[in-house]
From TrEMBL:
Keywords: Transferase. It comes from Triatoma infestans (Assassin bug). The lineage of its organism: Eukaryota, Metazoa, Ecdysozoa, Arthropoda, Hexapoda. Pfam families: Transglut_core (PF01841). This is Hemocyte protein-glutamine gamma-glutamyltransferase-like protein. It comes from the Eukaryota.
């Protein structure tokens, strides 16, 4: 069943040449495009779908997507990461889900987390960055001939944010 979903997902992306469809970098980018498969929801209201905490694997998500052709409701970071990991493994890319705690969200790329307070020390909730209690993404193992020597190996792909692959060696 997983291979049928993979073929469907990959065949929808007509922008890739045949050569690119054999490139692990391009394939990894396709697998983290899970937003076409899953709809994210952080509201706490899941009446018209499935609470992200109730998913027990990728297969039911991919099966529902294959049967309906529409986004499956709902996912959050660990669900996006797990589906991307399953898709990568199904096409032969070694992959693992990674989780960290107290995950800083740096929206303006300043390499700091900026929060604002009034003169009384009360938190102001405007344009503040945040610390999530955790975040999950997928690491994929691949050669990176497009990067300088030493940057192959584990690559981070974040299906929640649609970013990557980024060499873990470069991120250090």
């Amino acid at each position: 069943l997983m291979y049928c979903q993979l073929l469907e997902i990959y065949s929808k992306n007509t922008d890739l040449s045949y050569h690119e469809k054999g490139d692990p970098i391009q394939l990894a980018r396709l697998t983290f495009d899970t937003h076409s498969i899953l709809e994210g929801n952080w509201s706490g209201s899941y009446e018209d779908g499935t609470n992200p905490s109730l998913w027990t694997g990728s297969a039911p998500i991919l099966k529902e997507y294959s049967e309906t052709g529409t986004q499956v409701k709902y996912g959050q970071c660990w669900v996006f990461a797990s589906v991307a990991c399953s898709l990568c493994r199904a096409i032969g890319l070694p992959a693992r889900v990674v989780t960290n705690v107290v995950s800083a969200q740096d929206y303006d790329d300043s390499l700091t987390v900026d929060n604002y307070f009034d003169k009384d020390g009360e938190f102001l909730d405007f344009e503040s960055e945040s610390l999530w209690n955790f975040h999950a993404w997928t690491d994929v193992w691949m050669a990176r001939p497009d990067l300088p020597a030493g940057y192959g190996g584990w690559q981070a792909i974040d299906a929640t944010l649609n970013t990557g692959p980024s060499s873990l060696e470069a991120i250090k």
